[in-house]
Structures are given as C-alpha cells and as structure tokens.
C-alpha cells in the first residue's frame, strides 16, 4: 500500500509539474523554405529542441515572464527575440543566411559524394549493394556516374578517357596499391573493400587538390566510420558471396571484424556459361579494425585486411591457374591541437603476390610481387572565417619483383612529395583554392604541379567553378623496368568548367573538360621512352530528380569523350581501345510499401580496335529490394534482362571478346543479429 501511495504521489507531482509548464511552439523559415534541424532554445537554460522535417518546433519550459528565445543553424545568422513566454505559441522565426565561411562552403566541382550528411544524398552503403548493376560492388556502382566508361572485359574504373591505373584509391587519406581483386582474362573484377566499411565516399573525376598525387585522371578517397557507439552484428548471404561481421564497443574504442567468402561454384552449377572453369573463382577475405578516441586528443584508426583469390580456366591448349595474396594495413591519427590547428599522420602498407601457371603458354610460370609503404603527415590551420591553410609531406616506397620463365626484373624506388593548399573566400560567394604539389622520384627529376579552383557560390542552389592543374603518375613497373628508370613520371594537365544547380528535388550538373598528357611511355627501338602524348576532351551531364513523384527518383548520366593517344606500341596517334565516344545510363527507382523497384538502361557506343569497331553496348538491369522485417532485407537483381550478347573487343585472332554469360542473376539477404536495423547494418 505504501508503494502504491508513493507511485500515486509521483504521478500527481508529474501532472502538477506539467501544468506548471508553458508550451513554446512555432516554425523556423528561411524565406519561403522551412529550415530542418535548426536549434531553438531559451537563452541560459537547457530548454529547447531541433526543428523537424517541416521546420516545426515545440517544447515545454517552467520559465515565466520575460525570456530570450534564440535560434541557431550553420550558415545562418543567429536569431534572438525577447518576449513574454506566454506569447510564444505558434510563432514564426525567420532566419537570414550569412556569408558562408571557408569552413561551411562545399565546392563540389568534379566530385560526387556518397554517404554524407547532405540532404541530397545520392548513394549510401546499401544503395551501393543493391544497385541493379553492382551486385554489391563499389566499383560497379560507381560506373553508373558520368565520366566513367564501360569496359566490361575487366570491370575496372576508366574515367574521362584515362586508363584504369590512372584512377587511384585512398582510405583515410592513405594510398591503396591494388584496390581490385584479380580474375581470369576477359572477366570483370570486383573491388576489394566492403561498402559498409565507409561513412563517406568522394569520387573525384579530376581537378583534385594538392593533397592527392600519383593519379593522372581521378581519385577515389574513402573514409572509414568513427568509433562505434553500440555493438553491432550482422550477416549477409547471396548466390555468390557470404559475409559475417560485427563490432564490439568499449569505453572509448571499438573493435570490428569481418569475414567473407566469394565463390562462383554454386552459381556455375545453376547457370550455364561460355568459359571452361576447372576451378571456379573463389576469394576468402578477412578484415579487422580498431578505433580509439582520446579525450580532447583526436582519434586513432587502424585497419588490416587480407584476401586470397584463386581461379582456373581452360583457354585453348593451356590450363590457366591464377592465385593471388593481397594484404593491406592502414593506421592514421588525427587531432585538433588548439588555435585552429589540425594534425594528421598515417602509414599504409600494400603487398600483392601473384602466382600464375600457364599464364601465356602451356607450361610457363609467372610470379609477381609488389609492395608499397606510404607515409604521410599533414597540418591544417583555420586562420579565419575566410582563410584555411594546409601543408603536408609524404613518401611512397615501392619495390617489385617479376619472374617469367627466364625473364626477370627487380625495382626499388621511392617518390617524395610535398604540398601546400590555401582556401580563400575572396568575396561573399567567391572562393579561390590555390595548391602546389612537388614530387621527386629517385633516379629521375623534380616535378612542380600548380593547381587552382575558382568558384562562385552565390547561394545553395547554384555554383560554377573553373578548375585547372597539373597531375603526375609513375609509369607501370613493366615499363619502368624496360626503360631503366628513364621514364620517370607521366603528367597530365586538367581544365574543367563545372556548373551545378540544386533545388529541393533536383540536381543538375554539367562539366566540360580537357586533358593533355605528356611523357607517356612509347616503344622506341627496343626500349620505352617518355615520348608519348595524348589528349582527352568532352563533357559530362548528370541529372538526379526526386520531384516528379514522391515515391519516384530518376537519374540520367551521360558522357561524351574524344580521346586520342600516341603511346606504348602505337605506330600513330589514335583512339585507345578502352575509350568509347558516348556513355549513357538512365535509372528509375520506385518505392511502394516495403519494396523498392529500380530499372536501369546502360548504353555505350562501339570501341575501336585494329580488327574493327565493336557494336554498341546495351544492358537493361532490374533490381527489387524488400524489407521483410526491420532486421531482414532481401535484395535481388537481374543484369541484362534482354539477354543481349555484348562484344567488348577482339583478341589477336580477331575473335570477339564477350562475357562468360549474357545475364547475371543476384539474390541476397541482410540479417541483423542484434538490435540494430538491417538497413543500418554497418558492421564497422
């Protein structure tokens, strides 16, 4: 009885207390648009809340009489109003935009960001996995963007008329030597990293700042998640891959793991294919991360990953047997050290072993080892609202060994680099980014590479940018070995005009570009010399629209490219075999109930070979995703539903190069093994 009386007393006290409070409510606007996520509060108290998706707010306060109501939001001037608390019901707060500071402006010229907090989010981890043409692969999903080209025989990223090696991958600012898994010839490869590893993916098609080097065409920087706040465990399975992973949280740190197996064995038994695999493609991989936050002293991130890949294929009179071991480790530390300074340092090690039997002829043997150590340190300084500076140094230490029957070579060299960047708000809405990068390759020469971006951002709807710069990349190991280091580094000059319009439901971006290549390797009298050159020009168009229908989103990506080169063993200047003039992708995604249906059409014009021009590439892809429960997602896709036989090129005998099968069916399931939802299944 005594307990019941206490409970009743407590309830009565809560009722009395509630009646003693006053409701404050209203809406926060910027012009005619509601502001989402604005902080509305009473000065000097903890009473307040954030505005909802319609800009509305409401909270109770025990304050009486005259109070000061405030509203704040990044990018807007602070709002303040003195009033009697009884008069603050259904009030309308109008906030004015302030001139953007150097910290707040986002210049997105030639860059597509995924998984960021921007309300116009184009792609997150699950979108990558469930894209109709991706089959869970980051690389395949990125090929839906403008500027990329369809090269189906290897599946790698080719950007704006550049080779796949000209696109470099970075994790937390540190270089990845080989981001792709290996596979047999004329078979698409996959990216080595899970999309759930990352909280942000920024794919730059060109014109990037001085921080990034060793990339002639584009960079793919990816940032891993921070220290987890709750335990997470999940599993996924499909016809071709199986995955289990999770995260254990400690006081100020978290430990994550992931184990996966990819195998085409079951799939090859269920669905016929053209190639004769006596050993189906198989990859075993494991990953682990440890992250720690130091109180007022930054964050430490470590990553270690290893995968083993094997595949065997009968090709004419030989039995190709390929084995690859790939290991990557990464450790970074980042901290704010006061007075606007941010310090960063990191190291990464990449090791790749390739062992191939019957590589080119029956009975031969091919062995290749490549290793890279990447060291980097950087200091950033926010000087004021209009100026931000950064300087950094880094070193690439590389060595490789190749043995093929009686042929053998070893390489050992390093590349020392330094960069300085300055971001300056010259005028309201006018931003200038100046950077300079210098590199020294052992045995060769210094390179100086200036870069600049001038942007006009008058509002959040429109921006235009002019980008220009010089970029460099070391020639391939095979070419370096043949040239006795005389090749040094290839260079490319970029010039880009970027125009972007973004409203509440529509994003439109168009980018004309021009690239000029210098010092490319050219075969000359039995040796490679830096005499090659080339150009690549064109434009990209990207339209993403959510305004036609509440449940419908549509995307259009189109690229025009005119690329010509005189390099390698070319006898004249001509269009390289990997470049196609036109690339188009149309996507429509419709949600209904617990399901999402997407349909995509991909087109690429024919590519030029010495044996002739290939027919155009066509593929219609469909994807269906269903939320069975908050903890279970089922996803499926069918690529090339019309069954078109696409020709990717011709071999030395003039035979067309086609994929192992015309259609590819993919079905999988995500299961959360703890309390987190399946669509927030990030194991890391």
Describe what you observe in this structure.
By secondary structure, this protein is mainly beta. The protein folds into 2 domains: 2-94, Carboxypeptidase-like, regulatory domain (Immunoglobulin-like, Sandwich); 111-680, TonB-dependent receptor, beta-barrel domain (Maltoporin, Chain A), CATH 2.40.170.20. It is 6% helix and 57% strand. The protein contains 5 helices and 39 strands. A hairpin with a 2-residue loop joins strand 10 (167-171) and strand 11 (174-176). It is globular.
State the total count of DSSP E strands: 39
Instruction: Give the amount of beta strand, in percent.
Output: over 45%
Question: How many domain units?
Answer: 2
**Rg estimate, integer Å:** 28 Å
* Overall mean pLDDT: 85
CATH architecture of the largest domain: Beta Barrel
Q: Tell me about the largest β-sheet.
A: 22 strands, antiparallel, barrel
Assign an overall shape: globular
Report the helical percentage: under 10%
CATH topology of the largest domain: Maltoporin, Chain A
The first-level CATH class of the largest domain is given as: Mainly Beta
The class by helix and strand makeup works out as: mainly beta
CATH superfamily of the largest domain: TonB-dependent receptor, beta-barrel domain
- Specify the number of helices: 5
Low-confidence runs (pLDDT<50, min 5 residues)?
1-19, 115-123
Distance between the termini: 50 Å
